[in-house]
Amino acid sequence: MTQTSPALPAERRRTFAIISHPDAGKTTLTEKLLLFGGAIQLAGEVKAKRNRVSTRSDWMGIEKERGISVVTSVMTFEYADRVFNLLDTPGHEDFSEDTYRTLTAVDSAVMVIDAARGIEARTRKLFEVCRLRDIPIVTFINKMDRESRDPFDLLDEIEKTLALDTAPVTWPIGRGQSFAGTFDLARNLVRRLDADEDAIPVSGPDDPKCVGLLPEHEREAWLEEVMLAQEGLKRFELGPFREGHLTPVFFGSALKNFGVRDLIDSLAEIAPSPRGQEADKRLVTPDERGMTGFVFKIQANMDPNHRDRIAFMRVCSGRLERGMKAKLVRTGKPISLSAPQFFFAQDRAIADEAWAGDVVGIPNHGTLRIGDTLTEGEDLAFNGVPSFAPEIMRRIKLSDPMKAKKLREALQQMAEEGVVQLFLPQDGSPAIVGVVGALQLDVLKERLKAEYGIPIDYEQSRFTLARWIMSDKKGEVERFSDAHLSSMAKDLDGAPVFLAPSAYQLSYEQEKWPDVTFTDVKTYQ
Ligand code: GDP
Q1: How far is C-alpha 486 from the geometric centre of its chain's CA atoms?
Q2: Hey, do 9-68+107-169+236-270 and 389-524 end up sharing a CATH topology, with the first three levels equal?
Q3: pLDDT in tens, 95-145
Q4: How far apart are CA 290 and CA 413, in angstroms?
Q5: pLDDT tens across 46-64, in order?
Q6: Ligand 1, atom 28: nearest CA belongs to which residue?
Q7: Per the CATH hierarchy, to which homologous superfamily does domain 277-385 belong?
Q8: Is residue 254 in contact with ligand 1, taking CB distance under 6 Å?
Q9: Chain centre to alpha carbon of residue 225
Q10: Fewer beta carbons under 10 A from the terminal one: N or C of the chain?
């Protein structure tokens, strides 16, 4: 058996997510990307994929009812000698916390834009999250087969609203009804919409094999457009792309599976391999021998027959081997990785080994939490997985007081999975749950009933805001807490949280206590 160095398998990994506004075509594009990877055999599977997702999470009636995907999952496939890990994110903004956490586990992102609509609100928000970590972005302008906006206009909008340089790699030949293919601006290649073949070399845009695809009356204007694009717009450069300042742009139609090959080829070629990950003590690089990773997502009951709980962990360094013992840094206890799993489009399989960049599912019964770090013994904690101050807070109304203890346990579990946040008031009054999006409350209610047999309702809480508090001044947090006993709570990790009835009250306290910092984002550990 030949020994491979850990650096090599990690270098083959491309771990990415797709960011977009709902309806821009993320599902359709995902589906087509998976086709290239051979992960699924049949075209036209969008429906099938949706069905699969909902059967897998049948327990969650609301997902079915409302037709939204609440599930974040990962899909692994191979293409062009690369192992792609595509991390799926929920489309609905009420689950944005989940999406933000998922984005901490990727090395690049594909931004899908609807050619008729341009940059939309959610795309911009998700882009900002990527920017915080300088994640390189590849842009796919979708739905070119429909009436769409002028390509210059779209590029200009990306540059202006996102402050991101654009470098078109392909240029659309026609739009809407007359969309006939794309022209590769730097390499003089044409890809035709009506032919499922490799791109063909041409002498230039004026080659009849290129411009000839358009109706006669559109040709002259199009040639001018291409000349302008070639001369006036930026060319792709790897450095600025990798730093997150410039995005290569592809035009296409996910529905018609057009332009997708160029996109995936470019991901294989230019998207970065796993990056180093910041931990509390040092930067961990993928080529280190020791295995490390962090949990960014917990999903319960993916398979209703097994009532299992899967922690999704991004491997950050080394080699994860099936059967190995890892250290759960939060508790210092060992955890046996006896059945780590890889996920594919329709399947999952036991992973015998995984490398930096891979995302593995670790079945467990509640040992692992979001934000947890696993290592081969080293005491370090990755600190990038964020928790956001809730925007909605509720008290839970329990009709059957006999179930109070069971409810406490259930809430603790739901909070560990990241379904909601849990705040335990210091004065002993009932627990408060906090969420970023209202649908999370529906999910909690549904799951408490379906999985634990606890029917609940919600009551208004007198608090509307929660802030984690800390201070550089010794004893200050304790002094603040003592002075505000009835407004103090502990979060899941026991960190002190100040609950405020109004923004006014919060700013009043902030002014009065200048040595206390009130934060609305907490990173785990
Ligand atoms: P998501 O919400 O971003 O996942 O979007 P979907 O992939 O579900 O697509 C939303 C709608 O747009 C669906 O009806 C798709 O069939 C349609 N769609 C997606 N891509 C294209 C495209 O390239 N051209 C056209 N005409 N429709 C598309």
Answers
A1: 37
A2: no
A3: 778 888 899 999 999 999 999 999 998 899 889 889 988 999 999 999 999
A4: 30
A5: 333 444 433 333 334 444 4
A6: 255
A7: P-loop containing nucleotide triphosphate hydrolases (3.40.50.300)
A8: yes
A9: 36
A10: N
DSSP string, 330-391: TTTEEEE-SS-EEE-SS-EEE-SEEETT-EEEEE-SS---TT-EEESS----B---EEE--S
Q: Are 251 and 182 in contact (CB under 8 A)?
A: yes
DSSP 176: G
- 9-68+107-169+236-270 is classed in which CATH architecture? 3-Layer(aba) Sandwich (3.40)
Q: What value of ipTM does the predicted structure carry?
A: 0.99
165-168 and 170-173: which strand pairing? unpaired
8 A C-beta contact, residue 443 and residue 458 = no
Angstrom distance (rounded) from CA 171 to CA 230: 10
Q: Label the pairing between strands 277-278 and 246-251.
A: unpaired
Confidence (pTM)? 0.85
Token readout for 432 is 């408060």
Eight-state DSSP code of residue 402: G
Task: Give the fold, CATH level 3, of 389-524.
Answer: Alpha-Beta Plaits (3.30.70)
Whether residue 142 is annotated as binding a ligand: the answer is yes
Distance from the Cα of residue 452 to its chain's centroid: 29
Burial of 242 (0-12, 13-18, 19+ CB in 10 A): middle
Q: What DSSP designation does 296 have?
A: E
Helix (H, G, I), strand (E, B) or coil at 129: helix
253 CB under 6 A from ligand 1? yes
| 184 CB neighbour count, 10 Å cutoff | 18
Mean pLDDT for 254-275 is 95
Residue 113 Cβ contacting ligand 1 at under 6 Å: no
Residue 341, phi then psi, degrees to nearest 5: -125, 150
Whole-angstrom distance, CA of residue 252 vs CA of residue 36 = 15
Q: Using the mean position of ligand 1's atoms as its centre, give its distance from the Cα of residue 255 in Å.
A: 6
Res 480 pLDDT > 90 = yes
Domain residue ranges of the chain, discontinuous segments joined by + = 9-68+107-169+236-270, 277-385, 389-524
Q: Which two tokens stand for residue 349?
A: 């399989």
Alpha-carbon distance of 412 to 423, in angstroms, equals: 10
| CA nearest to 286, candidates 1, 89, 78, 83 | 83
Per-residue tokens: 353: 């080994």
Report the SS3 class of residue 429.
coil
Q: In degrees, to the nearest 5, what angle opens at C-alpha 426 toward C-alphas 421 and 431?
A: 40
Kindly report the protein residue whose alpha carbon is nearest to atom 22 of ligand 1: 143
Which of 18, 23, 193, 256 is the pocket-test mutation for ligand 1 (most atoms within 8 Å of CB)? Answer: 23
